[in-house]
Amino acid sequence: MLPTEYNDDLVQDFEIETQPTRTYALRFDGYPCSGGKLDGLEAMKQAIFLILQTERFQYAIYSWNYGIELNALLGQTMTPYLQAKVAKAIEDALMADDRVLSVEQFSFTKGKRNLLVKFIVTTTEGDVESEFEFGGETA
């Protein structure tokens, strides 16, 4: 006979606190960092940028859940199928972060040698309009 009610008399005597998104501000223009810190929406913008600039499984320092998988798609012609694969790769990479709630409203602009992808990331800190440039081969 299996029990139908489980009661172990445990009482939750603690609160779960969410950690702040505070992180060091990085500069990508070649100048040294000033030691400043970012929090909130600005920290999320930086996190999104870093996730999309890191190829998954390529660097031992990062978890296998961090980064984007696009190496297999490089060199393919810019077709709607490729656009869907890039959008899915972006969504998978960003949804691995527990602060990201959704990635939606993708739009694509074909260039001579690249594909510019614009999208909106809904996070716990607010909405972030972001873009990603995927290099490929046009036909």
Automatic annotation (TrEMBL):
It holds the Pfam family Sheath_initiator. It comes from the Bacteria. This is DUF2634 domain-containing protein. It comes from Butyricicoccus faecihominis.
